Amino acid sequence: MLSVGSPPPSPDWKQRSFFLQKLRTLGWIEGQNITVEYRWAFERYDRLADVAAELVRLPVDVIVAPDTSAIDAARHATTTTPIVMLTPVDPVALGYVASLARPGGNITGVGGQTQELSAKLLELLKKAVPEVTKVAVLANPSQQDIKGLVSETEGAARALGIQLHILEARYDSEFKHVFETAIEEGVGALLILPGLVASLHERHLAALAVQHRLPAIYTTRSFAEAGGLLAYGPKIADFSQLAASYVDRILKGAKAADLPVERVTTFEFVVNLKTAQALDLTIPPTLLFLADEVIR
Prior knowledge:
Shape: globular
Helix content: 40-55%
Strand order of the largest sheet: 7-6-8-9-10-12-13
CATH architecture of the largest domain: 3-Layer(aba) Sandwich
Radius of gyration: 19 Å
Number of helices: 12
Strand content: 15-25%
CATH superfamily of the largest domain: Response regulator
Structural class: alpha/beta
Number of domains: 2
Distance between the termini: 36 Å
Largest sheet: 7 strands, mixed
């Protein structure tokens, strides 16, 4: 397991739990017939190459890379060790695989549907704040996929008549400046693009959004659970369990080149009414009706 992030505070975080639970159902029990090596870059992108090379030297039988930075580091470290990717973007567009049906190299896994996702995020944000015309977009310029994500979001915004303000942050220490800039530019809401830095600091982002009175939406339910207003995206359990399924097939002899890339098709929408009240925002009943969960 290769990540640009840091170990979560809990040794049994959800993504790991879902992953190991699925492995167990497939006959793989950590500490008995499988060993999972975790390697972290502690949010230092310049360390990823060395960490990936370390995994290849061990050697491991398969590398799971849950973000584009990790995927890039892994594929530069090896062309033979199978890599199971988890990415919210189109892996064909980024050159990770030749096609979804026939990846063709040593990379396979789960690919995303960012164009549809960007449009849906903006659509839900617009329904929550009908009067909004300017939306700030938080993007991490260090991500390999960021240009595509921004471009797709801009296309969705044009269709909805929304003006975007792209604000960049590589580290959580830059978040405060991002929010101050957003307020100075007169934006009425915030869309956080998918990325590991945002995922690692959801609670910080949620608190800043409330502090600056900005309705915000992100792609994981944990953002809403941490105090964010809206969350819409694929289920973490689905991503983690699909990764485990790929690991299972590869360990049983399948080649990454022959395993089609899958797309997560189950999405969830969560609304935090506590946060809406803190923002003096009334969520339309029609939007609440669409929610899979409402936090009261």
